[in-house]
Amino acid sequence: MSSFTSEERAAPFTLEYRVFLKNEKGQYISPFHDIPIYADKDVFHMVVEVPRWSNAKMEIATKDPLNPIKQDVKKGKLRYVVNLFPYKGYIWNYGAIPQTWEDPGHSDKHTGCCGDNDPIDVCEIGSKVCARGEIIRVKVLGILAMIDEGETDWKVIAINVDDPDVANYNDISDVERLKPGYLEATVDWFRRYKVPDGKPENEFAFNAEFKNKDFAIDIIKSTHDYWKALVTKKTDGKGISCMNTTVSESPFRCDPDAAKAIVDALPPPCDSACTVPTDVDKWFHHQKN
């Protein structure tokens, strides 16, 4: 059971909506900087941004203080991914590994492109549909090297360590064997998901082949090193908020009261009285307008 909890502010599917994370003491923290990269030996933490089958494009707000999860906005409108045939929304629980950063100032030796300025992405393939803002522990299985508009955008493939079948998954070859077609669908989804918005298909390094667990962990470790340079101000974050409450060597560290003040200045928490349209209803409204 995770010691981290989440708190929603404002109503979901609005411009003001935010999901803040709290530690075991109920203090506000940054999911980007304060949640440890490792949950255990060879086990990583994952911040769930988008539950499987949903359409709202939620993400860690890297430039906002405390980096809450919020819905991405383009030209003043909330972003939703289309139901790209034959799929429904995101086909995995989607999120990021904390304390990682794909450095936009570093050209990746494998892709020849610089990083996308975000934490490294994770596609979690287990049976449970996770909740937005949930912190889970995952076993890394492999990785896909996507090139998104000229930027390196790694996609880690992982499985929740609490999944009943986790013991059967130890490398990317196990996904190929036990979930036939899932990796091919993953490439297809990432290749085409922006096409309905008028953008070209995404490209991939390694001829869109997935690399194995050891390769993936090496990539994750390198993004952790870039994050360390970022949060200790040894590299230019170019607008990223590094406000945190736990990184002792970081000049951006603040006390819990300062973190609380950031959240208290926002709209109140959303409780059971909040009445909001469903994710799908909002998406259809978005398409018609």
Automatic annotation (TrEMBL):
This is inorganic diphosphatase. Belongs to the PPase family. Its EC number is 3.6.1.1. Its cofactor is Mg(2+). Homodimer. The keyword Acetylation applies. The keyword Plastid does not apply. Keywords: Acetylation, Hydrolase, Magnesium, Metal-binding. It comes from Heterocephalus glaber. It holds the Pfam family Pyrophosphatase. One of its GO terms (cellular component) is cytoplasm. The gene is Ppa1. GO terms for biological process: phosphate-containing compound metabolic process. PANTHER family: INORGANIC PYROPHOSPHATASE. GO terms for molecular function: inorganic diphosphate phosphatase activity; magnesium ion binding.
